[in-house]
Amino acid sequence: MPPAVPRRFIMTAAVAAGLVVLVGVGFLAWIGTGRGLVPVEPASPNADDIQLLYVFVGAFASAIFLIVTIPLAAFTIRFRRGRRSRDEEGPQITGNTNLELAWTAGPILILVAIATFTFIKLSGIANAPAATDALDVRVTGRQFYWQYEYPNGVITIDRLRAPQGRVVDLTIVAPVWDVNHSWWVPELAGKRDAIPGVTNHTWFRATRTGVFDGRCAELCGVEHAFMTTSVEVMPSAEFDQWLSSETRAQQQGSSNLGGEVFQGVCAKCHGPQGQGAYARAIANNPIFADADATRTLLDNGVQNGTRVMPPVGRGWSEQQTQAVLDYLQKNLAPQTGGTTAGG
Amino acid sequence: MFTGDTYNELFTMHGTTMIFLAVVPVWAGLANFLVPLMIGARDMAFPRLNALSYWLFLAGGIVLYSSWFAKGGAPKAGWTSYVPLSIQIPGTGQDLWILSLHILTISSLAGAINFMVTIHNMRAQGMNWMRLPLFVWSIEVYALLLLLTLPALSAGLTLMLLDRQAGTHFFEPDHGGNAILYQHVFWFFGHPEVYVMILPAFGIISEVIPVFARKPIFGYKAIAYSTAAIGFMSMLVWAHHMFTVGLPTGLQALFMITSMAIAVPTGVKIFNWVATTWRGNIHFDTAMLYALGFIAVFTIGGLSGIFLAVFPFDWQAQDSYFVVAHLHYVLFGGSVFALIAGLFYWWPKIFGRMLDERLGKISFVLVFVGFNVTFQPQHLLGLLGMVRRVYDYPDESLWNTYNLISSIGSYIMAAGLLVILANMLVYGRRGVRAKNDPWVADTLEWYATSPPPPHNFDDVPYVTSARPLRDLRRQLQEARV
Lengths: 343, 481
What we know:
The complex is a heterodimer. By secondary structure, chain A is α+β, with helices and mostly antiparallel strands. Chain A has seven helices and twelve strands. By secondary structure, chain B is mainly α. In chain B, 69% of the residues lie in helices and 0% in strands. The relative contact order of chain B is 0.10. At the A-B interface, α2, α3, β7 and β9 of A face α1, α6, α7, α8 and α9 of B.
């Protein structure tokens, strides 16, 4: 006759379950203080809901961890060898069907609960709320920079400015000749890959102003580590003001777009002054005095043995290309070449 | 410290080495020795195929490491080598990586076929499937998974090689190829591969815990069937590595559910191991300490897997240090802890000498503490937004703190591993001579001498249960009385 479910086993399990509830509550309280295991404080409803999922799963996960480890510790201490010999056997219990059923059904119920809660929260995370004043931004991931394009054609590199409280819809792409990237600003939204040939979407609605740092999360080559980005959330009115002044400046060619591109696109490999870093020095390179040659370079990139410069400027608008050419000619071309000297 | 290039080469080689040259072949090696012994056979079914498998493994390793001297340096697209990056990288390192994996694939396939034929045909008389040692069960499923999924890897790598060298465009979007297709093909192999690496670890734990608790395994059938269930389900979860590529929501939900479901048979195993210790006579030999440590840390690795299966959370955690922590809890806290347990347990059988227990226990404390100090903070780094595969990061105080803690932990862990190495070098050859059955164990390998002769056994007892050696001991006792 198989041995009955041992009473002490049940008792221990009950004590463990009690402790689990206590620690689970403690865990939730700790999270609630905002200084616990979730140091990134969400600043958008979707990031907020993801955090809620994390806490929900965390409570169950902590409970299961304790259900396993407390009996494990208790049994190994209580039933340690002591002075017994190796020959002495414990009771020959080979199993118990009811227990097997219990620890199969229990986890299933927990997983059903987690899945159900996920589905409840899903649409609030995945789908942007319908909004008439939503701002559409096209995000392009490229080796090794993020290009943001506003609906009116304004372009920024690596820094996205966004209005507080408005839905920002992001369309995330990578040029077909590029590699995979992944856009991730943890305070605002989960990551979404930028894959050549694929169009992805995500969104956020920033609940507070500030600068939120993000980075490329998919290995994209040698300067993957420096493919960082940031989102500057401004009060809505301030944003509108910035956008209109930037629009004017970019149309007139008086913006700092050229400098922004240089810092985001060129400087990561060639150094902030073009003095050389991973890639060669480009300061005082005569090619920058020749606009056509520079255009070709930006459009085709370079393959020099096993080192490659990606075609960083392929597909840029004329306005963007011109801004960069002007900047390069003014700041990096040799100063003795007769061109007007720049700063 | 490094340039981006060198760093990318290092983590690519680290991942590839640990998976293809360390964990998978180490199970093949251990199983090669143990499977025939545990089922009462004289050798593996095809000894020459076995030799072929070994020499191909060696060749694959040499090809991979020769890439350090290749034009353009070692491969640097990560162990997953996602396209299009892996197609665009110039030089020959990436091609050597593909060649090496092709060679290792053939090696693994040869080994897998050999294991299956051996287990199916060469069991001792009376050893039916419900009397098969649980480690052998795990090797059966290990072999089956390799057999079913390695061809997918071969196909994917061949297409990658053609794209690189023959001008085809299977994965190149600028010529109409599909970059996501590679990820599907890779992970159809890659996720079962995770279970290829962890199932034999489960098998070892299922052997070690009953022997050192002096009890039969709790729920033999449940553990055996859950091994098969995990193997089957592991082939249905691959897209949980791809939650951020923009799959349709329904598909993501499906893969969330299958990924969660795999936790059920895994949980069954864990609960059965814990129950096995109940009312035992628990001996804290080094093998048992590592096995108990395994249960604790592997549970953490399994639970962080539940977080990652919840796909909206994965949108945050994917490719962050949270994933790095998770996979090391599973592969180091899981596979490597079990491997060390297995080494201490079977060393006397393999080499005829006992490893030193005191050094073993010191190593356990160092490795257990060092491991947790190294990898626990990486969960938090991931939640803080640190992505993997970056050689440098902006100076943020919490990141620095957690990374520093992690580095300190890695030195503690390395010290523990050095103690194990010293133990093997010193006591492995000069330790106390091992008796045939030093642990008073249950399975047939302890019936042979330590070390066993080339033909393993002169005779094998008729097997009437999953614990033939214990049966034999009892018969002898009764005969004496």
